[in-house]
Design goal:
The chain is mostly beta strands and 179 residues long. 0% of the residues lie in helices and 56% in strands.
Length: 179
């Protein structure tokens, strides 16, 4: 069960499931939010590298929120330092909206990542939310899918059914959503 309640007024939201916890998948340990890098101009090409410090030495990846804005539509990519950049986009940035995008990124032994934009004019703040390690809850990542279309949300709670919808199984214990 997912409940949305804005602090005032009303808004329309579309809820997509991004992941769910299950009996298989990677273990995600939620950590206190911490900014890893804050770039007013994300470079293109090879991008910029930044470290992920203060986490389990055996961590295999991180769950990050990427808050971004751009003067024109662009894409951002985040990948492990020392590896090739991913071919596909991970974050779409629009000049008409500002939103966090959740991304699971593998980590190499140096615990460093790279970020790059497909064109100039993008800013980004990368915030650490979780660590993939031997401890934590199990997370199964699946392609995004709608949990029921767009709804108007006021100051009263709105329930959005998640279990058994899209690719979320009935035995899921939590759901990671994007608004």
């Amino acid at each position: 069960r997912v409940v949305f309640v804005p602090s005032a007024g009303s808004m329309r939201v579309t809820v997509d499931q991004e992941s769910y916890t299950a009996a298989s998948g990677s273990r995600v340990q939620v950590v206190a939010r911490r900014t890893l890098t804050d770039l007013s101009a994300v470079p293109t090409g090879r991008g910029r590298s930044f470290g992920v410090r203060g986490i389990d030495a055996h961590a295999k990846g991180v769950l990050v929120a990427i808050d971004s804005h751009a003067s024109r539509a662009t894409n951002l990519r985040v990948w492990p330092y020392g590896t090739s950049a991913p071919h596909g986009q991970q974050v779409l940035v629009s000049p008409y909206s500002s939103a966090s995008n959740l991304v699971v990124v593998p980590l190499g032994s140096r615990h460093r990542l790279r970020i790059a934009a497909s064109r100039p004019g993008a800013s980004a703040r990368v915030v650490l939310l979780g660590v993939l390690s031997a401890t934590g809850k199990l997370l199964e990542t699946v392609p995004p899918a709608s949990l029921g279309g767009t709804r108007t949300v006021g100051t009263t709670p709105v329930d959005v059914r998640a279990r058994g919808v899209a690719q979320v199984p009935m035995n899921a214990t939590a759901v990671l959503v994007a608004l």
